[in-house]
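Quick illustration for those who missed Monday's session on complexes.
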Amino acid sequence: MSNKVLIGKQEYFKGIGKIPYEGPDSTNPLAFKYYDENRNIAGKAMREHFRFAVAYWHTFCGTGADPFGPGTMEFPWNEETDPVKAAMNKLDAAFEFFTKLGVPFYCFHDRDIAPEGSTVQESEKNLKRIIEAAGIKQEESGVKLLWGTANVFSHPRYMNGAATNPDFQVLTHAAAQVKSAIDATIQLGGDNYVFWGGREGYFSLLNTDMKRELNHLGMFLQKSRDYGREAGFKGNFLIEPKPMEPTKHQYDFDVSTVIAFIHQYELENDFKLNIENNHATLAGHTFAHEVQTAFGHGLFGSLDINQGDSLNGWDTDEFLHNLYDASELMLVLLTEGGVGQGGMNFDAKTRRSSTDPEDIFIGHISSMDTLARGLLIADTILNQSNYMKMKQDRYSSFDIGKGVAFENGELGLIELAELATEYGEPAHISGKQELFEALLNKHLR
Ligand code: XUL
Ligand code: CO
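Prediction with D-xylulose bound:
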């Protein structure tokens, strides 16, 4: 990243400059304590371990509205009444923010970055205008697009789903949006294109033909892939799992469900997963579990970084500040080779009552520091403890003799049963879970 800060016609975050790295002893809330982008850890710069991205929808669109009241945050880029001019102002604010924070990437939905028009053509025209301007901003700043996506869940027409809507006409509108959003992603050189299910799911089986809806979704994704590849998109298509909200049964429940879907519809050569922490916990999994599952199937794509609240069951999208979760995640990433052409997108929002413009900076800085600290902890555990050996030793009986033969597929059930008779009752070998937990805690600092 260059140190250049990009300010448009007007400076939106006055009084805040480029966020510096000041080290762990700093008391400056607007400085990094651990994220030192050029510092080399485990063979690469910190920046490359994370490939941090800012999410357009929360940071520049979400003003804090909830079901009990309107937004609380006043965004000056929203003051302009002409929607296209307001989108241009928002773009200025966004690039000012990216460059002051020093993140290398951003992500958007079509409707975050450009306003919906009254017809398909008008919406496409609006998007094209803003994408043109975004391309220039990218060149000027060096900030890149991690992924683009289409919002096919907010407009009332999508109340019964988009690709899984029982009304074919609605599906065609989703196709028009996805086509334009893929075009925009290609034009901006995006590394990935994301499909989050939105309202693809159902509330009652009484009015739902699940098999038919899933077939429609599979067909829709195949056609989106075909279009993207023909149009020259070289990046990964990603599906983002979520178990519930907005529908009761989301079709993309968790990583395992999506992996089965990807294989069922023969999407495995083009599709991978975008995994979000709060979605993992809603599905009853840890983030580390979901990420490990995706790596296990060779389908890890990218990450949405946030966290939920352990005391409630909805998607609160808080900035990740749980050091334990960050360290476990970084242990998995370091042992599996890292984020690749994915990254870490902050699908996170400041709380409704955090209304100062600096709070948006503090949320991102705190989360980037949490992950950087998690990286340092994981790297120390891997290099300065016997963690990996302890883990591998649990499986050492498969490294010798008949264990090797089993792994090579050379022993059938009859031979295995004969061996059980020969061995007699095995001695108990402790799993040592508490020792592993103590080892991680010892390094949490
Ligand atoms: C919703 C969610 C989305 C996706 C992109 O819970 O995570 O913002 O990340 O559509
Ligand atoms: Co997300």
